[in-house]
Amino acid sequence: MGNMRTSPLIAALASAATVLAHGHVDHIVIDGLAYQGYDPTSFPYQQDPPTVVGWATSQTDNGFVEPNSFTGEDIICHKTSVNAGGHAQVAAGSSISISWNTWPESHKGPMIDYLAACPGDCESADKAALEFFKIDEVGLIDESATNGFWGSDVLIQNNNTWLVQIPANIKAGNYVLRHETIALHSAGSANGAQAYPQCINLEITGDGTDVPAGTLATKLYTPEDPGILVNIYTTGLAYTIPGPALIAGASSSVAQSSSAITATGTATVGSGGSAATAAETTAAAATTTAAAATSPTAVVSTPTTLTTSTRAATPTTSASVCRHH
After folding, report:
1. DSSP string covering 113-152
2. pLDDT digits (tens, 9 = 90+) for 33-63
3. Cα dihedral 61, 67, 68, 74 sign
4. Other CB atoms within 10 A of residue 159 CB
5. Alpha-carbon distance 73 to 218, whole Å?
6. Higher model confidence: residue 12 or residue 116?
7. CB 211, CB 276: distance < 8 Å
């Protein structure tokens, strides 16, 4: 029996009910501490929204960035993004659990993660000058599944949570984590792909020495890239994940699981060490605080090992309403 493929029209009709179900990063978990992300559906309407680790955006409809806007600043950290007011601390070599509030099954596509070093604190960094290097990518895992089994399907299977590892070789300092999925259900048409970048401020600690060369976010993709303009309903699809290659030391096959939450973390406000200029930045400039845990520990899902081919790492030298839902 041949592979089953759903036509783009049927897929669009089937996903109509999820037009308002596009998601955003709700929170992240580091070493048991849960840090609030930016909620674009409620924070813009609050007089005094909380200081969080996630960058603010104006996409109140949980919308997307279209390919025709890939050369503009909206692709950096989403629409009219503004630096997060605080950051979370994480050790190089550790993993961050990134939880979305929801994600529609019809919006299939890759999961991609980047880091960009901030010259000072990321709370005041010029987003247009940030240069991102790729630390994680998972695209099409199983072409034989109906419409393929993708990185986004792993996200959904893991309770809308994605686990990304900070490479152990990364130098201590302040970084912006750019976490992204690109929905490809309408990508067979020009300007049909949908990018959902989410940014989080981090202070990375450790004794790593590498600050890999990066790429401006406005130059990561073009509308004509084979991983952007692609018909995912084609039998025998060989998908190319867009963007630069993974850096040396990065892995795109981290076992996926949901991290247990033991306490609520508070976004740290203030400068940590600069990855680009500090000579010694292994000590944190501010200590992440946590409220005492009063709720039961979150259930940890069974790890899922990804078995997908990845690009070989190259050594480094140092509103929108969903048109097709």
Report:
1. EEEEE-SS-GGG--GGG-EEEEEEEE-EEETTSTT-EEHH
2. 999 999 999 999 999 999 999 999 999 999 9
3. positive
4. 15
5. 7
6. 116
7. yes
